[in-house]
Amino acid sequence: MNTAVITALASYVPRTVAVHREPGIEPTLGAPMRSGWHAWVASWQADYVRYSTKKAASAGSAAIGAAPDEFRCVPVEGDTDLSGLAAKVAQTICAARPANAAPIDIAMFCHSSLNEHMSTTTAGRLRTVVGTPCFPSSVSQQQGASTFTALQLADNLLIAEPEIHTILIVAAEKWCPPFSRWTDQGIVQGDAAGAILVERAGPASYGMLVIDACASRLDRFRTHTPLSSQDIPTDWVPALRLTIDAMLLRHALQPNDLGTVVGAGIDPQLEEAVCRHLSRRVVEFPERCRAHLGAAEPIVQLADALESHDLPVRERILTWGIGLGGFVGCTLFESYGRPLLYRNPP
């Protein structure tokens, strides 16, 4: 069979930290540069005040009295770099695979943030984690829509290349100075990582069958107009509706043929509009933060949905997301049993 099926997912979201909004490019630490891997990573860590998850709510309450958008509780990784986040979720999936499992043929890395350790190529590090004969590649510049493009590529590769059987898609984001977590529109970007194992479906396959996946660009962003909250009803909602409706039409499906709809979680107004269009209620997750997790967002949201909701066999699941640079994407799955799920591995 040429059909792709997701057999395992891993997601990692670090502890929440209260982050102060900087007016522009964030300053680096003033400590002198020292040699060595750990010293290099430490020198790039932002000067954030750590809060545990339990204290995040009180930190958010304390920030209410401050200036608007001055503080936001955001997942911040302080112990490793971007490649380390990607390796963490990749190792989790690889370590759990049976010894006689088919080797992973391709590793795709999705991201929009840069690795602070410039000598490390994250896709190359993933090849080391996975081992030979893995071919590493990267999908970037589409932010939260990158994972949908990677799934589309994986699905096409399994159709076009009969010798390919297993593809690992890894998405990770870590923001560090001098790049600000804050966009001009007040959206704050958090750190996270996720991985999905895509395999060629067989008679005994279990997991989530990939029916379709796609990503597209908003036409208006050819003029590089920045995103604002006013754009949600005029640009983002229509673009998502068109993308989702076109996907359903390709497979002769109606909105009532869908079971679960998993959104991006970036903006309540956007999520409510899409669910209203599909006559579905918004899926609520406990302890959901409103930070944008970039390329890792679709995998993290899907893992949360699988953790908190029982999916009946043959139920269709629609996931959608956006890239802040002007991209939208969605994927249509069909459930054939719950894939292996690993959340916040050590």
TrEMBL record:
Domain Beta-ketoacyl-[acyl-carrier-protein] synthase III N-terminal stretches: 143-206
Single GO BP term: fatty acid biosynthetic process
InterPro entries reported in the protein's UniProt record: ACP_syn_III_N (IPR013751), Thiolase-like (IPR016039)
Domain of life: Bacteria
GO molecular function, one term: 3-oxoacyl-[acyl-carrier-protein] synthase activity
Protein's name in the database: 3-Oxoacyl-(Acyl-carrier-protein (ACP)) synthase III C terminal domain protein
